[in-house]
Design brief:
The structure holds two protein chains of two kinds.
Chain A (H helix, E strand, L loop, with lengths): L2 E4 L2 E4 L14 H8 L10 H17 L5 H8 L3 H7 L3 H9 L10
Chain B lengths: L46 H6 L18 H18 L9 H10 L11 H5 L8 H16 L3 H8 L7 H10 L8 H5 L6 H16 L7 H11 L7 H19 L14 E4 L3 H5 L2 H12 L4 E2 L13 H4 L1 H18 L3 E4 L3 H9 L13 E3 H10 L14 E3 L4 H5 L4 H10 L30 H9 L1 H10 L10 E4 L3 H13 L2 H5 L1 E4 L2 H7 L14
Parallel strand pairs in B: 1-2, 1-3, 3-4, 5-6, 6-7
Classes of the chains: A mainly alpha, B mainly alpha.
Chain lengths: 106, 536
Amino acid sequence: MPQIEIGGKTYEVDEDGFLQELDKWSKEFAQGYAAVEGIEGELTEDHWKLINYIRDYYTQYGIAPMIRKLCKDCDFKLKYIYEMFPSGPAKGACKLAGLSKPTGCV
Amino acid sequence: MKAGKIRLKDIGKPSDQMVKLNPADFMRLPYPYDKADSDPDFKQLTEDQKKRYEASLDGVLAISIPKPETKGEEDELVRKFLSGLEKLLTKENNWTFLQPLSLSLEYCAKCQTCNEACPIYTGSGKQEIYRPTYRSEVLRAIVNKYIKKGGKTFAKFSGNDIDLNWTTVARLAELAYRCTLCRRCAQTCPIGVDNGLITHELRKLFSQEMGIAPVEIHTLGSMKHLKAGSSTGLMPVALKDTIEFLEDDIKDRTGLDIKFPMDKEGADILLIHNAGEFLSWPENPMAFAIIFEAAGLNWTLSSDLLGYDAVNYGLWYDDVQFARVAVRHAQIAKKLGVKKIVIGECGHAHKAISVIADRIITGEINIPRESSYTLLEDIVCNGKLNLDPKKNDFPVTLHDPCNVTRLMGVVEPQRRVIRKICPQFREMEPHGVKNYCCGGGSGFAIMPSMNFPDWRTRISGRMKFKQILDAFQDVIDPSINKMVCAPCSNCKGAIREILNHYNAWEKCGISYTGLVEFIVNAMVDIKEPYIEWPEM
């Protein structure tokens, strides 16, 4: 299993960099991983709003929220999410939120 | 290595990589992608990944088999392959597909007519190992040498003296995932040899006898489907939340108060969507609900485990997994007491439950199954909705999912719908039963790891992208919004990735959606446009 090192801590990830265990996630992980995902500098309040929303939804329902719901509930346009997370909500935001890779025909 | 210089027995000769893919060899694309430099480099695996996994076929990983640590482990895997192959060729172990498999193994005349029909072979620039007959000829040579009596002596004279070692087996496993099972080769064969079926049977051998299958299709696919209720991981509690959201969203977008009927006993229709629609394309199940309610149908969804996810990934690689899911779908419908199952816009689910499952959904659990396409045709063409085609006045082309068109022959119903409500409809060429695969067939659309998506978009989906561009050449200017209608979740996923990779919305104004979205977009009573275009 591949590993990545962020801020002196080692995390197990899959071949595409998705964290394997949700409970190993930390704010440092998200911040440290941001640069890899093409996000410069400190994560903003809006970044955290989205990350926390995704994590809360996942904790409650065991799945990432659909993008349409995420946009509506956070009051973000999809275009703005792509500006914040250049690899997009599924590949970028969910990765920083510590979720595993989406499965099924999505 | 150049195409044409590879021989069958090279598959058993260890080397770092049997074939190196070079984008300069790939089939040329039409304008505005006709310059070689618009095709960036092919994504390579990391050195570390190559060290850990068997990637010596073409440097691409679909199934990622970990490298055995000892020679003993390798020998054991080869032994398992051979015993699995023997089982595949006996009636008691393969009652499902032995006859067509034997016929296809015995009777290929090697005329190679099928080669030109294969979008992967032609799209790759005619890579020898992707020839639809290459894989089959390797398997045939192994059967002839290692299973038939006196085969080893004969093999020395035949020129096809393949060494069945671990390299051969590992490469053959990957090669079983360089074909989308679109079966265009079988369609064109003058004597009906089915190389797609041979690929399917190989996948089955690897899965059922050796536990080798892509993780997305097996562990995170059919296993997750059986356990969580959906391969997406959507559990009943999340489905409930999702449906509530869809009801609110319908209200916001159309003003309509629609309640999705759930688990309604005795309804005429149990509609089963591919659950990916709920998560990635919620406008699709919303549109179905709007249409079914407006047409006054007595229908329901199921919230039972598996009852809300029509997928059946076993179709692509494992008969046992296939049967488990198919039987469950039929049982759920029986329990609800519905008159029939209607399959949403999912191609492989059509094939799974209405054709292949015919031999297991028998007796008490036998229940009529219908395509949503024919039902929609009845609704649209028999005047059950008030529709205004002028609301869809933009160029539209139609993608044919292989499983619904080539396999089942459902060609006209979806066209009658589109022709009636899309005044600027134009066909791709070829289309209908002669269509080309989206490139995502047989599970490829849901395998997003390492460099496999790159291979899919650049090679297996290449012919489809060419067809889409050709269909829109007269209106290719990005200021003209154009839509690809792809009535299948898997195809939509593959086409989405192709369009994204080539920035086809920004460069050509091409987007994609399903079939029902056009119908709702044309409904006179719905004031706001239902079809949404990507944000610039």
